[in-house]
Design brief:
about 650 residues, alpha+beta, Ubiquitin-like (UB roll), four-stranded antiparallel β-sheet, about 30% strand, extended, Vanomycin resistance protein VanB
């Protein structure tokens, strides 16, 4: 039959009675001219429509007005009728669609929120409402928990590894999966006769996955070369960008979601990423900013005088490096600018003075603080960047902003610093003329009068900074690699031990301390502390609701540290255990010379110290400290 002479079929769908197979009545079949009911070579009754009944058992094709229907598979039908039968058989799918669109059939197929025939991971969810479907799916997932918690094999380039689902938040999102299954509406034919497997919705934490994959990837791919402009003195040096090829969190997450449940190692894509700043843009920055920036000085005017920012200072503080995307956003680093201008800033700035206390007549006396002023270097850095591309008019107006003291007079008066809570003294030899004694006095003066606010942590290294020759410290014996050698700042450990014990007996929280490797009889065992810049520090926290004042004093043979505040405990005491695991010193001969300091040797031992907090006539808290001292060798020079 020619393609443009297809028969026209008119059908009427009927309602399917309960328990019966669907039956469709075709009310008219119109064949093309010359081929209707025997038209053409075979002859027949022309123009007469036929009535055809379709059942699930077969087709019946009675001729209108004729006797009983011939069998559906009769071979002696006229040729046109056989062609009609083939046509109807080939059009069965279209008939079935009309059947399914009937009221009762559609009601059956769409019963419940999830269409019938819908399954997820082999679980039939058809005909259920969303809550029922979620419950059924979740129960199945729980029964097969090992399947969904087993590490997933992955490949990143030529590297292989495994990713734990729990570590990256990899899971089937039950609610989203059910929602997707319920919202999809397939055609009537699929609803009535077919089944549909819905892919589960999978969730994963892309950032956590990226972190895990980078552990597996190692050096797979190549890193991005980020663009930059650095300075060699005052000469700008460009660094040109190069793309990277590696993992990208969103693409990795997509690959894992799609490949997780397929039973094969998941190949993670390596994506090429180009820096945001191009080579041409780097060259433009060199020409239009970096070179003119250091071509000459910039004058800064203030109400207290002028400053000059030299090209070398500009080169140190101008930042032309890229962020992680490869974008260069030029800026002037405020901290570097302030550091480079420190000597000039001192001429125009006034330092704020914190309120403090001094002990006079064995009582704390308030010393008022005062405000100051300083250059607003944040604004200066911003305004400086605007004039750096210019060849003339290189002048910037800087503002002086008021600076309040960190500790105001009013704040300090409310801190409850009213009584001496504890005091501790250690002794030294050699008088105040010895380098060791001078170091002890120097660090004590630096700490004297320090106020630690409630909740603050005091760091001795943080307070004094580096203790070198420039700060007034001298060479004196220090322990280095297990023996006494000359070193700058020797003796500061004695002050550290004195401060530690003062805070210890004040009941303040111990944050960080380390006893000496060897025990010295001038210190109490276990509850003593050394210090060494920058690795060994002493820290305590003011864990009381009151302020803490550190007061230091000295004589020609002793150093004393007192803590002033408001008492929280009636008293703090110490109990020591007996010494155990005692070891004897070895004898070691050293080469004679100025670096050799002989010692008599000290026994090694382990001991406990218990800090007892007393309040209301009883011990309310108890802390244990334990330390193992090494046996100090007996060093002999020569």
């Amino acid at each position: 039959m020619p393609a443009d002479e297809q028969p026209t079929v008119q059908m009427a769908a009927v309602t399917v009675p309960a328990g019966e197979r669907p039956t469709i009545q075709i009310t008219a079949v119109t064949l093309p001219a010359g081929q209707q009911n025997g038209g053409g070579p075979a002859g027949g009754v022309g123009g007469t429509p036929e009535t055809v009944t379709a059942t699930s058992a077969g087709w019946e094709t009675p001729i209108a007005g004729s006797g009983p229907a011939a069998p559906a598979d009769a071979l002696d039908q006229p040729a046109p009728r056989r062609r009609l039968r083939r046509l109807l058989l080939a059009g069965g799918a279209a008939v079935a669609v009309l059947v399914a669109s009937g009221g009762a059939t559609a009601g059956y197929a769409y019963a419940g929120e999830v269409p019938r025939g819908t399954s997820v991971l082999g679980v039939d969810l058809g005909g259920k409402n969303r809550a029922e479907a979620a419950q059924a799916l979740r129960a199945d997932l729980d029964s097969r928990a090992s399947t969904f918690t087993t590490p997933v094999p992955v490949r990143v380039g030529d590297q292989t590894g495994e990713v734990s689902p729990a570590a990256v938040g990899l899971a089937v999102d039950v609610e989203a999966t059910v929602a997707a299954a319920a919202e999809h509406r397939p055609g009537p034919l699929s609803l009535l006769f077919g089944s549909r497997e819905t892919e589960p919705v999978v969730s994963v934490d892309a950032e956590k996955l990226d972190a895990e994959l980078r552990k597996i990837a190692g050096r797979t791919g190549h890193q991005m070369t980020l663009p930059a402009i650095t300075f060699s003195g005052t000469t700008p040096r460009p660094v040109y960008p190069k793309p990277s090829k590696g993992l990208r969190a969103d693409e990795s997450a997509k690959a894992l979601r799609e490949g997780w449940l397929r039973g094969q190692p998941v190949q993670m894509p390596l994506v090429e990423t180009h820096p945001a700043t191009t080579t041409e843009e780097v060259d433009k920055l060199v020409t239009e900013l970096a070179k003119p920036a250091v071509a000459g000085p910039v004058t800064v005017t203030t109400d207290r005088g002028n400053l000059t920012i030299a090209p070398a200072v500009i080169a140190k503080s101008l930042v032309l490096t890229a962020d992680k995307t490869g974008k260069i956003a030029p800026r002037v680093d405020e901290k570097k600018l302030r550091a480079a201008l420190s000597s000039q800033l001192g001429k125009v700035e006034v330092k704020a003075k914190d309120a403090t206390m001094s002990i006079q007549g064995n009582k704390p006396k308030l010393v008022a603080g005062a405000g100051g002023s300083q250059v607003d270097t944040a604004a200066l850095a911003r305004d400086l960047l605007a004039v750096l591309p210019k060849t003339d008019g290189r002048t910037v107006q800087a503002q002086l902003k008021p600076v309040e003291p960190k500790v105001s007079t009013e704040d300090l008066s409310k801190m409850g610093i009213k009584e001496r809570v504890s005091t501790f003294t250690t002794n030294f030899t050699g008088g105040l003329g010895s380098p060791r004694s001078q170091n002890i006095v120097t660090i004590a003066r630096d700490v004297d009068g320090t106020v630690v606010k409630p909740g603050e942590t005091f760091s001795l290294n943080g307070h004094t900074g580096e203790r070198g020759y420039a700060q007034g410290y001298r060479d004196a014996p220090v322990i280095l690699d297990g023996k006494l050698v000359p070193g700058v700042g020797g003796g500061t450990s004695q002050f550290t031990t004195t401060l530690f014990n003062a805070t210890y007996y004040a009941g303040l929280e111990d944050v960080e301390h380390k006893p000496h490797s060897y025990w010295f009889s001038r210190y109490p065992p276990v509850i003593e502390s050394t210090i060494f810049w920058p690795d060994l520090d002493f820290k305590f926290k003011n864990d009381t609701p009151h302020g803490v004042l550190i007061d230091t004093s000295h004589t020609s043979s002793s150093i004393t540290v007192s803590i002033w505040s408001t008492k929280v405990y009636d008293r703090v005491t110490t109990e020591w255990s007996a010494r155990r695991n005692i070891t004897k010193p070895k004898v070691i001969k050293l080469q004679p010379g100025p670096s050799c300091i002989p010692t008599n040797g000290i026994d090694g031992f382990t001991q406990d110290a218990f800090r007892l907090f007393h309040k209301g006539g009883k011990v309310v808290k108890r802390e244990k400290f334990t330390w193992k001292y090494l046996a100090e060798p007996r060093y002999s020079c020569g």
